[in-house]
Amino acid sequence: MMMRIIFGALLGLCVACPALASVLGAVVVAAVSFPPLLAAAVGFWAWPSLTRTVRGWTS
Description:
Layout: H1 2-16, H2 18-33, H3 35-58
């Protein structure tokens, strides 16, 4: 639910301010073209579910 709200807010900002869309696009391109940054972002995003899974294995 929260991801939908964040996505909607970003989409609304990009429609309201087209210059922000180009800046956001440049940030996304820079992040995708630098694999370690992308790997760190995915790890940060996946960490809570990974810890819950491992905790389930050990309990």
